[in-house]
Design the sequence.
């Protein structure tokens, strides 16, 4: 029986003559040679299945072996043709979700990315003078304007910024850091590991909950190059604590000729405290306290593309710009285009919240979330039960963990299907929808779902309903 079935598998050149072969090549816009590779894989798989008797041989005879081959080929094509990096609807309410790509770009930033990607640009060409220019200059002025820094540059991300600062300015020297600030951020960023990698020597002072000025003082040696402060963005010790402020460290650093460096992490350019959200100092404030260098992310509170911004005293920034690593960690034109447009939005204090999706989502009131929730409920089929309830959303991205943004949640369920299964189907569908499970129900937080996406969520739930009935 097995041999009989195997003999029935047509030769590849015969299958290539089948009109389905040509149709698939055309529909999926792949070359015939690529399609032949996948066809060979499909045939090999079926051959293996038959030999191992994993396939129902009688059924194979009934269906017809070439139908089986072509449907397997077609599945392969649809798998290969869908993009791996896909759009996701974020129903978690967490605004800066690191796993879901952090900040959404503003429309202005997206337009600039498209325009810049579409044509040549003056990325490293000074149009006034007609000679080689520097890509750092493209955004330096805007960072200066937004933060009051003397100078600035941009690298791939904030981890890269920290690495460059340590490597270029403190390699083979000592860097003093408080034990209370040696945190791990976002699951993979550890100050101690980056420090080790950079060749700078970490000198830990104080204890986890308390560090005093004299701890720093006593740690200073001939070898010390820098005092580093790390904004412990995703971690808060509550209670009996003491940390030394930049204002207090500044005189010590300057007496001993040390660089005072603060890794700010998020780097807020807009003061969210005005709206009663969090207690995050702005970058300008951090610099005004007398720190020499700060570093921060482009895609956290700033609301732009992935990038690491280094700002501070010109003397140090100039050294960093000249370092070989700056070349290694440099950002591309699309990042610069998006960052420039994002930074420009900050020039208008009145419209910046409206323009940048990150700020807009963080500051969206509970009432505004509720409007979306009601709109969703009104469109939903009675197959689904929903209840609305108060909840909290998070800023995310390791930023302001103590902040709870009041929100309205939808808890959705159906007698016909378990929450875990809905959760999986939503995640695996197209577009992928990320929800949470609370009390055996699907929780959706519309803070991070746009009005336009509501219809897509409804459509997906309708599809699931149809699959079940
Ligand atoms: C997030 C964070 C980083 C890492 O920044 P990336 O832009 O993710 O590389 C470094 N330091 C602090 C304090 C952070 O919060």
Sequence:
């Amino acid at each position: 029986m097995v041999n009989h079935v195997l003999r029935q598998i047509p030769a590849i050149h015969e299958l290539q003559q089948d009109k389905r072969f040509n149709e698939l090549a055309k529909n999926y816009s792949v070359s015939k040679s690529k399609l032949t590779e996948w066809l060979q894989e499909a045939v090999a798989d079926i051959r293996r299945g038959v030999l191992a008797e994993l396939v129902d041989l009688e059924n194979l005879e009934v269906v017809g072996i070439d139908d089986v081959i072509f449907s397997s080929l077609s599945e392969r094509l649809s798998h290969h043709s869908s993009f791996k990096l896909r759009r996701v609807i974020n129903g978690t309410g967490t605004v800066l979700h690191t796993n879901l790509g952090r900040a959404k770009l503003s429309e202005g930033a997206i337009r600039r990315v498209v325009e810049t990607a579409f044509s040549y640009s003056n990325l490293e060409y000074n149009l006034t003078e007609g000679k080689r220019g520097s890509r750092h200059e493209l955004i330096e002025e805007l960072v200066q304007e937004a933060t009051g820094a003397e100078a600035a540059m941009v690298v791939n991300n904030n981890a890269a910024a920290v690495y460059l600062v340590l490597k270029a300015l403190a390699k083979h020297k000592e860097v003093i850091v408080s034990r209370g600030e040696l945190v791990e951020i976002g699951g993979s960023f550890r100050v101690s590991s980056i420090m080790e990698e950079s060749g700078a020597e970490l000198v830990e002072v104080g204890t986890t909950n308390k560090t005093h000025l004299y701890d720093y003082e006593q740690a200073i040696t001939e070898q010390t190059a820098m005092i580093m402060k790390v904004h412990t963005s995703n971690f808060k010790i509550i209670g009996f604590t003491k940390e030394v402020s930049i204002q207090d460290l500044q005189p010590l650093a300057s007496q001993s000729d040390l660089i005072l460096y603060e890794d700010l992490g998020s780097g807020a350019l807009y003061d969210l405290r005005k709206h009663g959200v969090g207690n995050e100092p702005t970058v300008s404030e951090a610099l005004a306290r007398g720190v020499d260098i700060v570093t921060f992310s482009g895609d956290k509170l700033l609301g732009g593309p992935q990038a690491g911004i280094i700002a501070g005293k010109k003397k140090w920034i100039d050294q960093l710009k000249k370092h070989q690593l700056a070349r290694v960690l440099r950002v591309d034109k699309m990042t610069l285009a998006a960052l420039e447009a994002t930074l420009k939005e900050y020039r208008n204090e009145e419209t910046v919240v409206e323009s940048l999706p990150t700020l807009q989502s963080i500051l969206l009131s509970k009432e505004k979330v509720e409007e979306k929730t009601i709109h969703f409920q009104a469109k939903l089929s009675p197959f689904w039960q929903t209840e609305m309830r108060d909840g909290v959303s998070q800023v995310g991205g390791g930023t302001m963990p103590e902040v709870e943004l009041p929100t309205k949640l939808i808890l959705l369920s159906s007698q016909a299907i378990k929450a875990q299964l809905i959760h999986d189907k939503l995640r695996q569908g197209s577009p992928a929808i990320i929800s949470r499970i609370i009390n055996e129900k699907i929780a959706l937080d519309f803070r991070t779902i746009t009005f336009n996406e509501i219809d897509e969520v409804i459509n997906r739930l309708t599809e699931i309903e149809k699959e079940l009935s």
